[in-house]
Amino acid sequence: MTDEMTWIIQAQHGDDDSFTNLVETYQKPVYNLCYRMLGEMEAAEDAAQETFLKAYQNLTRYDRERSFATWLLSIAAHHCIDKLRRRRFNSVSIDEDEEGQTDIPDHSAPDPESEIMKHQQRERLQDCLQSLDPTDRAAVAMRYWQDCSEVEIAQALNLTVPAVKSRLHRARRALAELWEEKPTRMRHERKPYGSPAF
Amino acid sequence: MDHRPFEDWLLDNQTLNLEQERQLNVHLRTCSSCTAIAEVNLALNSVREVAPAAGFSDRFQVRLAANKQALRWRNIWGFLILTLSALGILVWAAWPILKDLILSPVNLLASWISSLASFWAAIQAITRTGVMLFKVVPGFVPVYVWMAILIAAGVWCVVWVVSLIKFTKVSQGV
Is ipTM strictly over 0.95? Predict the structure, then answer.
């Protein structure tokens, strides 16, 4: 039996320390998904905390046959989708991202210019991401940031696999259209294209 | 080659062979919309995971403790409100009796005893009538009627048992 399964079983029997181990293990992917969905550090922190609280309260309902990570990400994604649907406007700005402490360019890197360029690309992508439909955004975040398979995304978002494929396809197109509209802050030379079609 | 296949390769994130890659790179030099998709794909594949600020699990512990405390208080208040409401409804429903009990307890007790006595008398009368009917009625019913009643009861029992077996049988399936 893995450590994770031991912690889950112990937590299901009311051991809070075991649940803390689970929180420590999954805090980064859950927080990251919430951040990509909501676009604000404070909102992401709150959503990630709420996700773990919901998981704690519903732990007895967790089916041990399923992946715990997918279950947690499913709770996080649905929580964020609900939050986004309740919001009238997206008040995300690039400046907020710059204020954050977790996604800043590494000026001490061997190639600082390239590092800054990558950082700007990430900002631009995050900015485009905020314009997507909440479920499409969740699918993209799970696919690229959490490395989830289409089956896992389908399970987490209660969709079929073809629906996930279609949503990812649509999201890539929408992102590309937004990418063209948003001005680039720094001109850069395009790298030759590699396969798979990244 | 027209624009469509290149766009599909990019939007479906397909794995390409060397020749397809070469063709795509040539196409990208002249197509701005495919270039945008390619740039998005490149950006998506070089994303970085962000981490929460240090002390996330400590903050979770604090939130969990606060949540448990709030839940405890909610339960206490819920119990109190429920108990008081139930008491209120009970007092409201029993108020006519309670009023009599408070104003004239002796009269109320007397009326209760009188009701009990009437009830007992009614039970005794019904019992006596039943016993009398049980003694008299069989004499008026012919033997073949009794036999018909017994046979009908037997058939009804058989049908009932067969139905029970049929409807409670678990399908073994393949």
Answer: no
